[in-house]
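User: Reviewer 2 asked us to show a designed sequence for the structure in our supplementary figure. I'm pasting the structure tokens here. Could you produce the per-position amino acids so we can include them in the response letter?
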């Protein structure tokens, strides 16, 4: 997810709405199958040699994640984390000769878990920002923009949405920054504000549009594209993707894990494993050829 505020603010009815509307969006495991196994991934000895001894001895990487953001990370019917980022992490761990163990957590708790050594890594669609880089390092593996969607047949321009109802997942960047900024532009110009509808989960935000309770939704590009696919003919793209920014795996400052994770992911790019995962989930448009570190401060 993009930048989230420290304290979530959601509609009091969000949980009830999510339950009421759950029939519209199908977040079951995609037809391509469950999370990719790591058995066919070849270990990269050079990358594995960079692991801290504690991780090598434990034989696992503890990864904090908030699985509420399909298709990036969400839960299967048994409650286990799945998604393209989960597949990517499983393969990365295999490259390093260890297993991935997921620590399900609220988004706001993931960085503190990493800095407090309760988790080795954080993987939950984190946007790399200079502010966050003051706390942790980021290994950058993907580029995601913001993408709007509207109800099928309803033309919506994200740059001219004054007076419309726009659904967002609470505490995402779209909720805290993007939509409020657009709304301020409206009121500064003497036009009606954007009516922002906040929901606890992305499913609920998507369903609000599908059922006509909102005119549009705003989310990270892979999430919006997935939502459109999952709702059949109920949603359509509204405008083009904008404000691209790098996703990053959260690593404790100055940890040897930065180099190990970077080298493992670059090895996956080189042997095609990286592209295979992205292609499976239909999110290859945001793929990168070079795995970088702390891109926000380099830009």
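Assistant: Here is a per-position design you can include in the supplement:
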């Amino acid at each position: 997810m993009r930048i989230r505020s420290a304290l979530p603010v959601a509609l009091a009815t969000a949980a009830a709405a999510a339950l009421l509307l759950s029939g519209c969006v199908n977040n079951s495991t995609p037809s391509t199958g469950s999370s990719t196994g790591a058995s066919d991934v070849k270990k990269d000895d050079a990358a594995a040699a960079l692991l801290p001894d504690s991780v090598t001895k434990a034989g696992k990487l503890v990864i904090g994640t908030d699985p509420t953001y399909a298709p990036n990370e969400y839960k299967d019917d048994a409650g286990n984390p799945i998604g393209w980022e989960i597949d990517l992490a499983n393969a990365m761990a295999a490259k390093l000769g260890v297993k991935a163990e997921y620590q399900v957590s609220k988004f706001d708790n993931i960085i503190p878990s990493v800095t407090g050594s309760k988790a080795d890594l954080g993987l939950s669609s984190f946007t790399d920002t200079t502010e966050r880089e003051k706390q942790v390092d980021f290994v950058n593996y993907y580029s995601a923009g913001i993408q709007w969607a509207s109800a099928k047949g309803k033309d919506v321009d994200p740059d001219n949405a004054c007076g419309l109802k726009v659904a967002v997942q609470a505490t995402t960047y779209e909720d805290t920054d993007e939509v409020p900024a657009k709304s301020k532009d409206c009121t500064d110009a003497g036009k009606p504000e954007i009516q922002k509808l906040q929901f606890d989960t992305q499913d609920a935000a998507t369903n609000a549009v599908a059922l006509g309770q909102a005119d549009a939704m705003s989310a990270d590009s892979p999430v919006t594209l997935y939502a459109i696919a999952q709702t059949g003919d109920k949603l359509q793209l509204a405008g083009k993707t904008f404000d691209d920014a790098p996703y990053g795996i959260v690593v404790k400052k100055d940890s040897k894990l930065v180099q190990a994770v970077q080298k493992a992911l670059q090895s996956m790019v080189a042997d095609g494993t990286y592209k295979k995962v992205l292609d499976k989930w239909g999110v290859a448009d945001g793929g990168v050829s070079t795995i970088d570190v702390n891109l926000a401060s380099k830009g």
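For the response letter, you might also mention the following. The radius of gyration is 19 Å. Confidence is low (pLDDT under 50) at residues 3-35.
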